[in-house]
């Protein structure tokens, strides 16, 4: 079965079967039947992935700006020391998990290939 954009949006944005039914002008039973359709499930899953990808891209773009602002606060001697310290703390606390993930992703393939970390000997 083919679904209109309006139907897809209703399934994505409404939180209850009744809301979906009211928005589309169909019965709750019709909504429940559609929820069991594998094609609809596939469409909704792909659309959710698209939404998450777009949101992630926006976050990645804004992270550069946020880091630049934090760095400018940290380096501006006219700003109160406590504010500068807060900026440093925020930058370090937020970046630690990212750095750990990067370290793992960078070194894991070597370890998976039998790399023992002793190449300096």
What would the keywords be for this entry?
mainly alpha; elongated; about 120 residues
What does this structure look like?
- Helix 1 (5-13) runs antiparallel to helix 2 and helix 4 (38-75) crosses helix 5.
- This protein has helices at residues 5-13, 17-24, 28-35, 38-75, 81-112.
- It contains 5 helices and no strands.
Helix content: over 70%
* Unreliable runs: none
Count, helices: 5
Strand content: under 5%
Shape: elongated
Structural class: mainly alpha
| Rounded mean pLDDT score | 84
Main sheet, how many strands, which sense, barrel?
none
SS elements, strand count: 0
Separation, N- and C-terminal Cα atoms:
64 Å
**Whole-angstrom Rg:** 24 Å
> What string gives the helices and strands in order?
HHHHH
List the helices and strands and how they pair.
Elements: H1 5-13, H2 17-24, H3 28-35, H4 38-75, H5 81-112
Helix pairs in contact: 1-2, 2-3, 4-5
């Amino acid at each position: 079965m083919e679904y209109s954009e309006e139907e897809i949006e209703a399934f994505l944005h409404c939180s209850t079967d009744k809301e979906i039914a009211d928005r589309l002008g169909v019965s709750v039973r019709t909504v429940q039947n559609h929820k069991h359709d594998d094609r609809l499930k596939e469409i909704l899953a792909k659309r959710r992935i698209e939404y998450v990808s777009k949101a992630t891209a926006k976050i990645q773009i804004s992270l550069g700006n946020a880091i630049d602002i934090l760095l400018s606060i940290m380096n501006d001697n006219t700003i109160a020391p406590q504010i500068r310290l807060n900026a440093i703390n925020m930058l370090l606390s937020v970046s630690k998990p990212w750095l750990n993930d990067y370290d793992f992703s960078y070194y894991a393939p070597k370890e998976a290939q039998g790399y023992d970390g002793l190449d300096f000997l």
